[in-house]
């Protein structure tokens, strides 16, 4: 691309992220980028820009040869895949913020880039404004990583902060996260842990060189959290954080999981509040490092997209350095053990989870809570049953790596 010319951007989506990017570009007048065309869905929606800026047919944008690069920021992951795949088939440069799209289609997206010579960057798709993909891909390209874990969803972290810091109710806090533009169009993705799972899959590809299908990652969220669980955490001197974690065992097997966890003041993630995300990258030689920043919102996410726009316009593409070094898909460490708290009304879940080292915590009307040890394999198998039962499960600490070999701490409630 000619470095002295104003580069023309075709933008898909003009919601929280699209408008965040547009606003940044409008304020930063010296930047050599201009949003030339915007594709949205609803012709009846009131827009902050004149109607001639918009089109409702994404093919029109893809056919516009005057555009230098494309930014995809729509809320529909399947439609987004259709757009991005077609753009890559045309050899175009594309930036996306859509983690579900990347998590579910990474191998196809890689193949399309290789075959047709286009480029796809997606820094904004993981941890919003934190530059974590490029950090893992570039800075840590040669150092083996032992673990990558953290808080990867801004909405659920915002909700948990409102509950623990301000004693607000779950529904009120979720509504605020939606009003502030942090939540997905379908907020179940945020609160159930699915969005964190998608981000974890992307991180795993860059951190360990392992592509993993989202279906293989057990995920649990805070959608069934209640006052009893919050009280249990408080009595423990902890808060609850939604933790997404992937590490390789000594046998080279992968432990990927998304699980709300008790987190006390000694934990790196304790200080990550509101819509902030925190990612701990643990290098074999450098040790753990916490990267903290805003994980959601128009400006932080728009800033990550902008960084990709600048990089892609200069010819940068991900080298997938670790991915290219590895050929095998990783086996999951199905026997790996985690220590958990389970609250439910269904005693069968204890059997379905194969919980061992059981300790009763509390009984209240129909509901009971227990502590126990569960294998990753059983967590994966029982996850639909747990969701169907409206049960709540969380890890006793965010230190999943050592969870299986540690003995449960004496818990204040344990009887
Ligand atoms: N919000 C955030 O903080 C973050 C969001 N993301 C990701 O960025 C993407 C956009 O999120 P966000 O801006 O919050 O979403 P919004 O719901 O705020 O906006 C979505 C935009 O997509 C448009 N759209 C939806 N479907 C289509 C379609 N089929 N064709 C054309 N346009 C369409 C909508 O059009 P219309 O205006 O007509 O309704 C709207 O402009 C998502 O993938 C999200 O996961 C990533 C990081 C952070
Ligand atoms: N809904 C997401 C937005 C950013 O990815 C979140 O809350 O983290």
From TrEMBL:
Family: Belongs to the homoserine dehydrogenase family.
Domain annotation Aspartate/homoserine dehydrogenase NAD-binding: ranges: 13-123
Enzyme class: oxidoreductase
Keywords: Amino-acid biosynthesis, Methionine biosynthesis, NADP, Oxidoreductase, Threonine biosynthesis
Catalytic activity: L-homoserine + NADP(+) = L-aspartate 4-semialdehyde + NADPH + H(+)
All residue ranges annotated as the Homoserine dehydrogenase catalytic domain in the record: 131-310
Biological process terms in GO annotation: methionine biosynthetic process; threonine biosynthetic process
UniProt protein name: Homoserine dehydrogenase
UniProt KW Amino-acid biosynthesis keyword: yes
Keyword NADP: yes
PROSITE patterns listed in its UniProt record: HOMOSER_DHGENASE
Annotated InterPro entries: Asp/hSer_DH_NAD-bd (IPR005106), HDH_cat (IPR001342), HDH_CS (IPR019811), NAD(P)-bd_dom_sf (IPR036291)
An MF annotation (GO) of this entry: NADP binding
Enzyme Commission (EC) number: 1.1.1.3
Pathways per UniProt: Amino-acid biosynthesis; L-methionine biosynthesis via de novo pathway; L-homoserine from L-aspartate: step 3/3; Amino-acid biosynthesis; L-threonine biosynthesis; L-threonine from L-aspartate: step 3/5
Domain of life: Bacteria
């Amino acid at each position: 691309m000619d470095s002295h010319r104003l580069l023309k951007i075709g933008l898909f989506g003009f919601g929280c992220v699209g408008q965040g990017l547009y606003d940044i570009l409008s304020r930063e007048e010296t930047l050599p980028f201009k949003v030339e065309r915007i594709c949205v869905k609803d012709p009846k929606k009131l827009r902050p820009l004149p109607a001639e800026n918009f089109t409702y047919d994404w093919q029109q944008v893809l056919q516009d040869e005057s555009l230098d690069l494309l930014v995809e920021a729509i809320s529909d992951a399947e439609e987004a895949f259709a757009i991005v795949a077609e753009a890559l088939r045309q050899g175009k440069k594309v930036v996306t913020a859509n983690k579900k799209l990347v998590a579910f289609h990474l191998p196809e997206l890689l193949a399309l880039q290789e075959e047709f010579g286009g480029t796809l960057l997606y820094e904004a798709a993981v941890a919003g404004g934190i530059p974590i993909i490029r950090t893992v891909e570039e800075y840590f390209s040669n150092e083996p990583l032992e673990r990558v874990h953290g808080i990867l969803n801004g909405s659920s972290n915002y909700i948990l902060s409102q509950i623990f810091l301000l004693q607000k109710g779950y529904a009120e806090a979720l509504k605020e996260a939606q009003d502030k533009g942090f939540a997905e169009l379908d907020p179940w993705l945020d609160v159930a842990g699915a969005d964190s799972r998608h981000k974890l899959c992307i991180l795993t590809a860059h951190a360990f060189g392992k592509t993993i299908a989202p279906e293989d990652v057990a995920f649990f969220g805070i959608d069934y959290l209640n006052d009893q669980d919050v009280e249990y955490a408080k009595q423990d001197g902890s808060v609850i954080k939604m933790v997404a974690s992937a590490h390789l065992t000594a046998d080279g097997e992968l432990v990927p999981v998304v699980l709300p966890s008790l987190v006390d003041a000694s934990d790196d993630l304790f200080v990550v509040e509101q819509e902030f995300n925190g990612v701990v990258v643990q290098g074999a030689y450098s040790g753990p490092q916490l990267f903290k920043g805003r994980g959601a919102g128009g400006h932080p996410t728009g800033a990550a997209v902008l960084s990709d726009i600048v990089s892609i316009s200069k010819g940068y593409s991900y080298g997938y350095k670790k991915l290219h070094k590895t050929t095998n898909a990783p086996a999951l460490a199905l026997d790996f053990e985690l220590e958990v708290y389970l609250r439910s009304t269904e005693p069968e879940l204890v059997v379905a989870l194969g919980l061992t080292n059981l300790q009763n915590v509390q009984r209240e009307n129909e509901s009971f809570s227990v502590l126990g040890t569960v294998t990753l394999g059983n967590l994966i198998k029982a996850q639909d049953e747990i969701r169907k039962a409206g049960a709540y499960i969380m890890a006793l600490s965010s230190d999943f790596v050592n969870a299986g070999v540690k003995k449960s701490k004496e818990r204040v409630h344990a009887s």
